[in-house]
Amino acid sequence: MKKKTIFSKKIIRDINKSIIDSDSKLDIDFLYQEKYFNYEIEEWYGEEFGIKGELRKIIIETLLKTYFEWKNELDKLNKEYYLAIWLYNPRMLKSEVVCAIDEKVAYYENESFLVSKKNSELDTNQFGKLSTELQKFAWDKKIDLDSIHECEINWPKEQYKIEKEYHKDQRFYKKLIQEKFHVIEKDNEKIYFYPKGDVWIGKLK
To answer: In which domain of life is the source organism classified (predicted)?
Structure first.
């Protein structure tokens, strides 16, 4: 439990530092050049599950603050734009705010995620005092996917330091290939996608 607390405090410091360093500020020049811009809470800790307490509060507050700040800036452009909170569950640390303009709007609206077949609504009441703010948004449920490239599946046993890990991965890869949840081919290589949870797409009503 102590290790978990130290980990959470470190993430909170990282998030606060990213805000101070203006990482969460909308870069209009980048947006016009690349047609999109995003602020991700913390990509390196995206696998951490069970986020709650002060850390969850900080994450939600940061997403909301960033969303409304960006909305004010985007409204000044006088053009169509995409703006949404991507709230991951359980990989909450992957959550982000994303915006796009021009041709990228259609991509983020229609192609960035697979639709979830689970018929449920985001329980905003689980977020305590922040529930009121979250209820201002319409939440659309999608599938949070992770991926494995074909080259990773074909790694030889010799590249593993622990043989047990090799056999564990091989069992996972075999199941992944058999299920064929979602597969694409890029640069003559197959990429296998598999679900890690949900991602809620939130837009202001």
So the answer is: Bacteria
Pairing of strands 114-115, 81-89: unpaired
Q: At what angle do helices 53-75 and 2-20 cross, to 10 degrees?
A: 20
173-182, Cβ contacts within 8 angstroms, sequence gap of 24 or more: 173/148, 176/148, 177/153, 182/114, 182/145
pTM of the model: 0.87
- Rounded Cα–Cα distance for residues 151 and 37 (Å): 30
20 by Cβ neighbours in 10 Å (0-12 / 13-18 / 19+) ranks as exposed
Beta carbons of 160 and 153 less than 8 angstroms apart: no
Average pLDDT along the chain, 205 residues, taken 10 residues at a time: 60 72 86 96 64 87 96 96 96 94 96 87 91 96 94 90 93 93 92 94 97
